[in-house]
Amino acid sequence: MIRIGANPICWSNDDMQEIGGDIPLEQCLAEAKAIGIEGMELGNKFPRTPAALKPILDAFKLDLVSGWYSTFLIERNPETEFEAARPHVELLKALGAKVLIAAECTRTIHGTQSAPLSTRPVMTDAEWDRFNAGLTRFAEMLAEEGLTLVYHHHMGTVVQTEAEIDRMMAGTGPAVHLLLDTGHITWAGGDPVALARRYSDRIAHVHTKDVRPAIARQAIEEDWSFLNSVLAGVYTVPGDGAIDYVAVFREIPDYSGWIVIEAEQDPVKAPPLQYVQMGFDNLNRFIDEAGLKR
């Protein structure tokens, strides 16, 4: 079954919390529900205990989709990582989420506005071996808790390009699944259609943000930081950029799970209610045109 969710980053940014910092959580949730969104991922304004978060989501009749977790598996072993993740794991389990979104953040520069994308970290062969083994074990421990690890490739991190995704997928076990993020792979120079085709059986979560190609090219050519690129409008909601979502979705005909609208923008330039509604309408059309099962 396909369900459409949203990430609150469409309203309030997590890496630069002043972007949309004035938008209350209640406004975000009320607008999401009014649009037709069924569930939300976590953001910086969400309480992180089940007792505090459940009544808020229940009040808006929204489910918890999942939430980002930063791993540091290059630096620490998977057992230590799992203990660090325990509060997050318990929150997801208590509120019925089925996937945990993981992204390796050792030496990441995506949250540093002054750091050009060219300065992002690149793993050594030894680090790749440690990371892939650690990610596999971490995912296996999560599976024992009833959660599926979905790996979030991301600009500015050690897993950004299509080749890096391939190396991670080849070097990890079946407990590791892929979060297909159409916007990140497109901006990184990869092909979301090819990625969907290659890993259709291991894609367990989908983020849909679109890319404005002229801004993406300028960001790379002028070596902007990730955050400055976001402020310039490199990302938008599905259907408002250059990605062929119908072609992507046709490569995952058996997909069942959440498809999440996640397009970080400056809410002053891109009013969230207007843009998320646009993305929601476009996404529904693309899903139906691709023939995905509702």
Automatic annotation (TrEMBL):
User: Transmembrane stretches, by residue range?
Assistant: none
Gene3D superfamilies per record: Divalent-metal-dependent TIM barrel enzymes
Q: Which organism is it from?
A: Kaistia dalseonensis
Q: Where in the numbering of this chain does the Xylose isomerase-like TIM barrel domain appear?
A: 29-274
Q: Which PANTHER family match?
A: HYDROXYPYRUVATE ISOMERASE (PTHR12110), INOSOSE DEHYDRATASE (PTHR12110:SF41)
Q: Which InterPro entries does the record match to this protein? A: IolE/MocC (IPR030823), IolE/XylAMocC-like (IPR050312), Xyl_isomerase-like_sf (IPR036237), Xyl_isomerase-like_TIM-brl (IPR013022)
- Pfam families to which the protein is assigned, alphabetical: AP_endonuc_2 (PF01261)
Give the source's domain of life in one word. Bacteria
* Name of this chain's protein: Myo-inosose-2 dehydratase
